[in-house]
Specification:
InterPro entries: ACP_syn_III_C, Thiolase-like, Thiolase_N. This protein is of the alpha/beta class and about 375 residues long. It has a single domain, classed as Thiolase/Chalcone synthase (Peroxisomal Thiolase, Chain A, domain 1). It is built from twelve helices and 15 strands. The strands form three sheets. Strands 1, 4, 5, 6, 7, 8, 11, 12, 13, 14 and 15 form an eleven-stranded mixed beta sheet that branches. A hairpin with a 3-residue loop joins strand 13 and strand 14. It is globular, with a radius of gyration of 20 Å. The termini are far apart.
């Protein structure tokens, strides 16, 4: 779908302060590592993830979402009553009901005519919400809308660590489905989209497409629906098959995006993929015929932050100058299910604001080349 009247006016970010390294997680798994004789450094080596952030105990998603939403609204300089839709779109939410969006809407002081609801679609929730808001704006239904999400990895990580150490029947083979759970991180991000008249010069949210490959809906699955701050979920993932089928879905989706936007691969200045890990990134870019040097990553410092992974990476790239005005930017989202949502955007003067908690400095250090040893 083509959006001629939609701008990404601003992005709000909230990053947790607590940092869990892959080395620390392996130390916590010492009973398992010792019994199975697993080599130290395996987690970082296989995933490319050095660390991930976690919220403090007791954090509920609406809290950081309110902060991120407030950052986005203030950065755009828009009257909150002009916002006609508020979508909360992360996997994590406060309760089964009411919608987490309800508390966020109230605390942000948005108007009574605002559309308020939750959207959930694994790692694609925020992108799905952005497309819904863009469609509302393009149709003339609203002038501005906010999509926000907060992912909380702490309960999943703690439950996974406890389960892995407690199960003495695990083998090197049977432990593999739990590996993906150890790569998950926390974060919060809000995108404020408006009619272009309200944000002249901001990023043009130009095209959006969807691709479904739901024959593979069972490759990544949490147990039952246990939404809420006290949830203790476990997740099993067939990582190898999920990666292969996800890449195939992404290749088909990119073909649709290029057709819809009229771009060629060579005309894409910057790409942002869903942030899973190093193997996924290399495999996906190779299959799509896209160069690694144009791609932007945050997973080494944040891990996989679910629905906010790609939106946070876009924000970090803009804040650090990796994304520049005029860059043709392809946002390449893929989520379990399997589904893909992709967006073509002409990057403009989108305002970025938030609480980065040292993340930008950490990413800059990770981007620095290794020193050359002579002699």
């Amino acid at each position: 779908m083509h959006f001629s009247d939609v701008s990404l006016a601003s992005i709000g970010v909230t990053i947790p302060t607590a940092r869990w390294t892959s080395e620390q997680i392996e130390r916590d798994l010492e009973p398992l590592y010792t019994r199975l004789k697993l080599p130290e450094g395996r987690l970082a080596m296989m995933s490319g993830i050095a660390s991930r952030r976690v919220w403090e105990p007791g954090t509920v998603p609406s809290g950081p979402s309110i902060q991120s939403g407030r950052h986005a609204i203030e950065a755009a300089g828009i009257d909150p009553t002009q916002i006609g839709a508020l979508i909360h779109a992360s996997v994590c939410r406060d309760f089964l009901e009411p919608a987490t969006a309800s508390r966020v809407h109230h605390e942000l002081g948005l108007g009574p005519q605002c559309w308020v609801y939750d959207v959930s679609n694994a790692c694609l929730g925020v992108l799905n919400g952005a497309i819904q808001i863009a469609t509302m704006i393009q149709s003339g239904m609203i002038k501005a809308g906010l999509v926000v999400g907060t992912e909380n990895s702490r309960p999943l990580m703690e439950a996974t660590l406890a389960a892995l150490n407690a199960d003495t029947q695990l083998t090197r083979k049977t432990v593999k489905p739990a590996f993906a759970s150890l790569t998950i991180g926390s974060g919060s991000c809000a995108w404020l989209l408006t009619h272009r008249d309200l944000a002249p010069g901001a990023t043009s949210f130009a095209n959006g497409i969807a691709q479904a490959n739901t024959a593979h809906h069972d490759l990544c699955r949490s147990d039952q629906d246990t939404a809420g701050a006290a949830m203790q979920p476990l997740m099993e993932t067939d990582s190898e098959t999920l990666m292969a089928e996800g890449i195939a879905t992404g290749v088909a989706a990119l073909s649709d995006l290029l057709a819809d936007s009229g771009w060629t691969r060579d005309e894409i200045d910057r790409t942002v993929c869903h942030q899973v890990g190093s193997r996924h990134r290399v495999g996906m870019l190779e299959a799509m015929g896209l160069p690694e040097e144009r791609d932007i990553v945050t997973f080494p410092a944040l891990g996989n932050t679910g629905s906010v992974a790609l939106p946070l990476t876009v924000a970090a790239a803009a804040a650090s100058g990796e994304l520049e005005v005029g860059d043709r930017t392809a946002m390449l989202g893929i989520g379990s299910g399997i589904n893909s949502v992709m967006v073509a955007a002409d990057w403009g003067q989108t305002q970025i604001s938030g609480e980065w908690s040292g993340l930008l400095d950490e990413l800059a250090e990770l981007r620095e080349p290794e020193p050359t040893v002579v002699g």
